[in-house]
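Hi D.,

Good news: the full-assembly prediction came through. Inputs first.
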Amino acid sequence: MIIPHPLLGPRDAQEFVYLGDACLIDRPDGMAEDSADAFHDYVYMRDNPAGEHRELWYHEQGDRSWLVVTRDTVTHRILRAELASDIARQRGRGR
Amino acid sequence: MSQINRINSGGGLIDRSKTLSFTFDGRTYQGHPGDTLASALLANGVRLMGRSFKYHRPRGPLSAGSEEPNALVELRAGARREPNTRATTAELFDGLQADSQNRWPSLRFDALAINDRLSNFLTAGFYYKTFMWPRAFWEKVYEPTIRHAAGLGRLSMQDDPDAYDKGFLHCDLLIVGAGPAGLAAALTAGRAGAQVILADEDFRLGGRLNAETFTLDDGPASDWVAATLAELAAMPNLRLMARTTVVGAFDHGVYGAVERVADHLPEPEVDKPRQILWRVYARRALLCAGATERPIAFANNDRPGILQAGALRAYANRWGAAVARRVAVFTNNDDGHRTARDLLTLGLDVAAVIDTRPDAPPGAPQAIGYEVLPGAQVIDTAGRLGLSDVTVRTADGGMRTISCGALGVSGGWNPAVHMTCHQGARPRWEESIAAFVPGADLPPGLSVAGAASGTFSTAGALREGAAGAVAALADLGIDCQPAALPRAEDAPVTITAFWHVNGKGRAWLDQQNDVTVKDVKLAHQEGFRSVEHLKRYTTLGMATDQGKTANMGALAIMAELTGKPIPEVGTTMFRPPYTPVSLGTLAGRSRDEDFRPRRLTPSHRWAEEQGAVFVEVGNWMRAQYFPRPGETHWRQTVDREVRATRSAVGVCDVTTLGKIDVQGTDAATFLNRIYCNAFAKLAVGKVRYGLMLREDGIAKDDGTAARLAEDHFVVTTTTANAVTVFRHMEFCRQCLWPDLDVQLISTTEAWAQYSVAGPRARALLGRIVDPATDLSNEAFPFMACAEVTVCGGLRARLFRISFSGELAYEIAVPTRYGDALMRALMTAGEDFGVTAYGTEALGVLRIEKGHPAGNELNGQTTARMLGMGSMVSAKKDSIGTVLSRREDLDGPEPLRLVGLRPVNAADPLVAGAHLMAQGAPLAAGNSQGWVTSAAFSPHVGSAIALGFLALGDSRKGEIIRAVNPLGGTDVAVEVVSPHFVDPEGEKLRA
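Then the structure:
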């Protein structure tokens, strides 16, 4: 597979390490009332779509960027690759 | 022996001016450059080349290419002996040695041919039924016997002496196959200036044009091929790759290709690899892989001398090899007649063309030189070790026996669609040629031209090849015109399917795995009707040829039996590789000591000089212990190193620990979130032990974080987790808190670090650290850290931390000074009796002190199990804290870290032993925990261990058992504190 790195262009997937669903960005607040339930879902509940899937890849043999790669799990077609930090900010994460 | 079946009228693409000698089963033969092993043997009158897998039937080549099921040999001798090599693709060289396989005692007389007589008991699935009882016999008797009787070649059982490489190529257009379509595509794309790779599995480019007597324009096809190749070879933008099989189409335009660099030589040239596995990054690819001729099944259709009709004329046209002087052809299409005409032209005797079509093109023998039997079928054959006669049922029902030494069989051609299906697409049935052709959803960027797409005429192949190149380049924004093409035959090809002749005898479909029409019928009868079940029940298509000549016929028969059309029966999946790839090629250079990178610490050479024994820790080589003269057992060495450290001072290389530099105004906030214990208020100049959890609450790693400045920390990780902890920290930084002002960099390789431990540690360091630093306990207490200078101005970092429980420091210097520092420490401490210790002593010291390490932090451990439950801060949100508080995380009888000591001091303890109550029956259900780490403690004077024990924190003083059923030991142990040494921590604070 070839991953179109947003900063470095097309890179072989062998340079990356795969983590999993990009929903891992949405870490719940550990101090909230319902944190036990929220963390249960965060750690253990995953969709397993046949089709478009947003997932986290780490360019370990490269610039160490975490990327959110949107990939079709049926065809392996990659639709997008974005910096995870940008996505995290879009989803309201900051400090 | 002379080449009795070499056609002497000349011709062929072999160099008759040179003669090569080779042996087959010990007998010497001659051939010519350009021959394959199969063509040379056939020219020498040898049709019998092997025995079949199950029934040990005599077999000769069926094909003249890589689809060959039968003619498998062991090639070469000694360490280079390679089993299951196809004689049809093995290029002849002088001195080649080949031996037949799966026969005993000899190829001509094979005792196990008795299996053929027992075939009624050995049908498909026989091993599921016949050998079911008694059960224990399967492993001990039946399976070894069957494995001995069935089989292919033998491995050499020696190390492979050859090297294999891996390489990377990039191109605009990869053309797979150099037949008419591929050559036309290459001309078109090459002239347009695109970066082109043209790869073909054959050693001679040209594909089917090399095997035919076509004319292109007004000359022989070989002239056009030669001129084309000359032009292509001169193009700097085009790479011609003969002997290169493209084995798979992978995601995003990545293709795997195996180049056989040296298989045509007795051995590889010096410093050259035998084969190269290429990873080809192709923006577009054009599959011009041609088609495979399929046989017709009829009784005893597997005798040596029965070949694909196209192979029969390929041997004659390309190699000047007649399989026999008198031949016949059995066909359902016009192509079979081409074989008859070509062989006749070369002076062979064509006995008859048996054509299944009642309306076969007629022709009187006087006019066309051979007899045509329309509407006839071959119903049986004869000949013990090779074909002698065929029995034909003529259209009027009469029987004829025709004597011939070779029979060419043509049931039509199957386009080589394999690569089009490598990413899940299914082929489409094309009724006009009764074959599967490439379907929709091809791998992105791949298109197909020529016979591979079902276009069987030469002109059609040329046209499609050129057009395919134009279209592929247009996709890339490169405009070009199709190359001017030569005039070529353009006869329309239509096929009416004819799969098998009805009859009583066994009719072979898969010759390599010995699957017959009867086996397919049996599979149907027993309910294995889906194509995937059929395959697994009969083993159809599961041999090294992957059923290239077999699958289609079997599918067709299953379709007949189920009353379904063939496309509804479907095909099995086509998966890479297209042809077998040796494991050595896949491994490449990653073997032996190059299997993976080896990391050495800066003082590795010093340790070597001391005679250290090394141990692999991940990629690192670490000194395990340093034996001295007179020490005969590693335990003596380790005990000495431990004692010296506890009584004087020891030095250990701890460079391999992961080191991560954390900087930024939010560095403290960041660490406070990734460690479960508090870090926000750690003072500058202090170190703290830190426990990292996974988000599910399980311990991930431990280490220390030293605050060198307000905005600067140095984090250490365990050696094993250095990479994953850094990855995790980057995840937290980028994905969870992207706006924290914090930066990370791994400095594991930037700093050499040494532990200096023992009562004389301060005195020793006083001789190394420059006087500006006050090392007194008041000025530099336990858990202090500082940036200092050593040896007269060299910058260093000093940490007062202890893994051993002794007064201890870790000192780090830039990597290039690591060796010098180690030598300086050992010299400076000579009068203290300074002792270098390795990982083994390090382990003993930390077990004595009760520090957890990898065995305890095994991915199943909670902070509470480690006795660190109170460290997990409830006042903050850090990774893993929420789920670490789950009530049931530890279960109803929570495991706790304990120390263990044998009641009888002489008893040994081993890690992995189960902990059980005294008197409990020896059963897994009675296990109450396990020993995680064990060692002999010189300090205690017996073996000691750490372990996890149910409710262990309230069981001190209890006598239990450490049971090791694998080693047959059952030792009474006392539950004690895990801190065997200095439980109050007085030494390390001294």
